[in-house]
Amino acid sequence: MGLAAAATGAAAVTAGTTVPAYLRTPPTAPLPATAPSGRFGGQVVLVTGGTSGIGEAAVRAFAAEGASVVFCGRREHLGRDIARSLGRDVRYVRADVRVPSDVAGLVAEVDRAFGRLDIAVNNAGVSRTAPAHEMALDQFDEVLDTNVRGVFLSIKHEVPLLLRSGGGVILCTSSESRRPGGVAYSASKQAIQGIVDAVALDYGSRGIRVNAIAPGTTDTALVRPPGLPDAMWEAFRNAWGPLNVPALARMATPDEIARAILALCSDDFGYMTGSTVLVGGSPLSGGKMTMPPGFPDQG
């Protein structure tokens, strides 16, 4: 059972459950964001998987820094609401990164709307969790189709427009995840790192930098199940962090990961390509997660 499933089970725990005081509040807190400086003004950014979580945070952060942004996702109502809230230089396109014609249409809209592409953030991804012998083949295929095929298709269609624009940056979302039950998810995220290595070699001399970011567990819908009361989720999240993130002792926020994405896409990292950067709150670790006292064990 994964983190989201364990948290779902937590909703059934009685209100009288006592979580030890030292687990109630994480010992670290996210740093406040700096004031926007317009550092991406005049640049055009494409974000896949931009309707929630890390992707949405990246869309909002790039827009706040002056970029024109096109983003995609399958949940049209969310995409349109985000675009509406950010103004005319942010466009939403409904697209499924598993479908070649959708991805081609997405990049064509970038070209039509803005005539260039400077940065592509390939973030769309899904997760399914089960031991290898229990995972259904269609679940495995869904993860690989979205997380690997989707990244390949995105890069395939982004590169010509990046080249025509004089070069740019591709950043793909990998993961630090090394957990039991992660045969599909871990395989897909390791594959992304291989793609990044190869594409960086293919296009480095032509002005395209290609890297990956590997976030640690982040407070998004990917780990928080729908319908879980805010108070229950906050208790679970705050208790989970010190037991599973030895250094910073908490989950990341989407905004923190988005800030790292912007940094890696900036000229400050102009000599970095073919790299995967861990933003995990602790040195890389794996193994079974420890569930907080009073909450269901992961199993």
From TrEMBL:
GO molecular function: oxidoreductase activity
Pfam families membership: adh_short_C2
Domain of life of the source: Bacteria
Keyword Oxidoreductase attached: yes
SMART domains: PKS_KR
Ketoreductase domain residues: 43-216
Keywords: NAD, Oxidoreductase
Keyword Protein biosynthesis attributed: no
Xref: Gene3D superfamilies: NAD(P)-binding Rossmann-like Domain
InterPro entries (alphabetical): KR_dom, NAD(P)-bd_dom_sf, SDR_fam
PANTHER family for the chain: DEHYDROGENASES, SHORT CHAIN, ESTRADIOL 17-BETA-DEHYDROGENASE 8-RELATED
Family: Belongs to the short-chain dehydrogenases/reductases (SDR) family.
Protein name from the UniProt record: SDR family oxidoreductase
